[in-house]
Design brief:
Elements: H1 2-15, H2 19-32, H3 37-49, H4 53-66, H5 73-89, H6 93-102
C-alpha cells in the first residue's frame, strides 16, 4: 500500500515536471516493495520521458517480469507499449515488433485501442 502511495506521489511530481522529486518517490516505492511492478513501471516511464531509453528498457522489462495476473490489463498494456516505444528509440526494431505483437495477444487484445489515442 505504501509503495502505491509513493508511485502516486511520483506520478504527480512527474506531471509537474519535477523529475528529481518523482525519481525520489519512485525509488521509495521500490524500496518499500521491491516486487511491485508499478514502481519499476513508473520509474521506466520517467526515464523514457527523460530520453534515457536504455535505463527505461531495463526498468520496464523488470516491471513486466514482476507483472502479476491480478494486475490490471491496462498496466500490462502500458508496460508493453512503453517497451515498444523505447526499443524503437534505441533502434531495436525486432524487439519493438515483438512488443507490438504482444498487444494482439490475450489479455491485451481485449483493450479498445480507441481509448488510447495518441495526442
Amino acid at each position: 500500500m505504501i509503495a502505491i502511495l509513493y508511485c502516486n506521489k511520483g506520478d504527480a511530481e512527474m506531471n509537474l515536471e519535477n523529475f528529481i522529486a518523482a525519481e525520489s518517490s519512485f525509488k521509495e516505492a521500490i524500496t518499500y516493495e521491491d516486487d511491485f511492478s508499478g514502481g519499476y513501471m513508473s520509474m521506466g516511464r520517467l526515464r523514457s520521458q527523460q530520453k534515457m531509453y536504455d535505463d527505461a528498457i531495463k526498468l520496464l522489462e523488470k516491471a513486466l517480469s514482476l507483472h502479476q495476473p491480478t494486475d490490471s490489463v491496462h498496466s500490462l498494456f502500458n508496460m508493453v507499449i512503453g517497451l515498444a516505444y523505447c526499443y524503437n528509440k534505441t533502434g531495436q526494431k525486432e524487439k519493438e515488433k515483438e512488443m507490438m505483437l504482444k498487444c494482439l495477444e490475450p489479455p491485451l487484445s481485449s483493450i479498445s485501442f480507441v481509448e488510447h489515442e495518441i495526442n
